[in-house]
Design a protein that fits this description.
This protein is an all-alpha fold and 466 residues long. It contains 17 helices and no strands. Helix 1 (25-36) crosses helix 7 (160-189), helix 2 packs across helix 10 (235-267) and helix 6 (141-158) packs antiparallel against helix 13 (342-361).
């Protein structure tokens, strides 16, 4: 039973001005994979988790994978019956009151844009790392941030199919290099377990909890294939599969990489949590130091793909929000030839780079920006995920697809997101991280003020039904 949000026989107006059915299953999968940025996590995020969780890093990622898979199941159930550029916004609006649907929309928009900002910060850090590897002069962080944003916006505006293919190949090559180094390190260690990790030696409950929260950030955006509902071929089949496959693939990769990085740094007698370029160390331990440099280059290019994926997803959420009165109608415009959201794409790119450029201008490091804006994005994703989970049971009952046993899964996912939110809020973190909840709430207040001042009815706030 297909929901009215998408039908193969729908009129052209149901495309929202986008090109229908042009993306293959692999290209659709590439959107979710690239937003997760699986190359960036082993290089940048796992060391941060290791600094908190130590020998329990692999467990933090295993638990995060389970939590994300439960949420992915909820998203895939919606995607099985409904396809739209609005993604989680569309899903949550089907049964939740209009104000909560608006919260989901604004949260999801912030999540994609802030993730893009985080990635831009990571890009200018690793760009200068790679330049130094080649004995070249470091470049201005502001110039590097603008450079990667221009590339992402230009490709996202030009053609969604070119965008998807580029993201797919970039991630494939980068992940292949990481897997090769991981296998070399495991082969050198031999066919036996690393007992300190399996015994969780030195790990604490607090460290594991904080590490788990940070590990969840590695997965955010796994659902972004659902923003391609109007452009994916056979979306009611390919999008649910892409959502589940991206969560399983990246979760498996992250657990193995976390285990191997802790092991490799122990063999190399170094501290993973303090390493600026962890795969240089792992490649040396594996006996192929040249691959460390290649992986840094791959991570750099992967960050470009992730920035592109974030701009692509944010533009489509913004497009549907404009169609439903949550933002000005100008954001609903699409290019006649490219069939891409023109105003929304440029707006998403500007919104992503503006805070990064300001922070870089003030001299803040790329990894700081990566962490701060990544934390801000996490609030948006967690709230959007939680709202989708609590909306699912009613939606399934309304279309006659509800099953008694499956009703418990959305509530488990909701509780997992509630735990993640509580872990972000308490204990209150020091410095810039402690300000992120207030920035999120201020942003949400502005968005909801627009919603209320626009005087939209519940019907106008819900996504268009075609």
């Amino acid at each position: 039973m297909a929901d009215a949000g998408f039908s193969p026989a729908a009129s052209s107006s149901g495309n929202f001005g986008l090109r229908r059915g042009v993306l293959s299953p692999f290209e659709t999968l590439a959107q979710s994979i690239s937003t997760i940025a699986p190359t960036a996590t082993p290089v940048a995020t796992i060391p941060l988790v290791a600094a908190l969780a130590g020998n329990a890093t692999w467990l933090a990622y295993a638990l995060a994978t389970v939590a994300i898979l439960v949420v992915a199941w909820c998203v895939s159930r919606f995607a099985k019956y409904s396809a739209s550029p609005g993604s989680l916004y569309t899903y949550s609006s089907k049964t939740l009151p209009a104000p909560l649907a608006a919260v989901a929309a604004w949260s999801l928009l912030l999540a994609y844009i802030a993730t893009g900002s985080s990635i831009i910060g990571g890009f200018y850090h690793y760009a200068n790392v790679v330049l130094q590897d080649f004995s070249l002069r470091a470049r201005s962080p502001v110039a590097l941030a603008l450079f990667v944003t221009v590339i992402a916006v230009a490709v996202a505006w030009r053609d969604v199919k070119i965008s998807a293919r580029l993201m797919l190949w970039i991630e494939a090559v980068s992940v292949a290099a990481i897997v090769f180094v991981v296998l070399l390190v495991l082969f050198r260690h031999g066919m036996h377990f690393d007992l300190p990790q399996f015994r969780l030696q030195g790990a604490t409950g607090t460290g594991l909890r904080l590490g788990l929260i940070l590990a969840l950030f590695s997965f955010v955006g796994f659902e972004s294939a659902s923003t391609l509902g109007a452009e994916a071929h056979d979306p009611l089949r390919t999008i649910p599969r892409a959502v589940i496959q991206s969560a399983i693939f990246c979760g498996s990769l992250f657990v193995v990489c976390a285990y191997t990085e802790i092991l490799g740094f122990r063999l190399g007698r170094q501290n993973l949590g303090e390493s600026p370029a962890p795969f240089h160390v792992l490649a040396t331990v594996g006996g192929v130091p040249v691959l460390g440099l290649l992986i840094d280059v791959g991570a750099l290019v992967s960050l470009v793909a992730c920035a592109l994926a974030c701009v692509t997803a944010a533009a489509r959420v913004l497009l549907l929000m404009a169609h439903n009165g949550l933002v000005p109608k100008a954001f609903a415009r699409t290019h006649d030839r490219n069939a891409t959201p023109t105003v929304a794409t440029f707006a998403a790119g500007f919104a992503a780079v503006a805070p990064v450029a300001a922070l870089a201008w003030r001299g803040f490091g790329g990894l700081d920006v990566y962490g701060w804006l990544g934390a801000l994005a996490t609030y948006g994703f967690i709230v959007a995920y939680a709202l989708v989970c609590i909306a699912l049971p009613s939606y399934l009952r309304s279309i006659g697809a509800g099953r008694s046993g499956a009703q418990a899964i959305p509530w488990l996912a909701f509780l997992a997101m509630l735990f993640a939110l509580a872990g972000n809020l308490y204990p209150v973190q020091e410095g810039a991280y402690g300000k992120m909840p207030y920035i999120y709430l201020a942003y949400l207040a502005l968005g909801m003020s627009w919603f209320l001042l626009a005087g939209r009815s519940t019907r106008a706030a819900a996504p268009s039904q075609n």
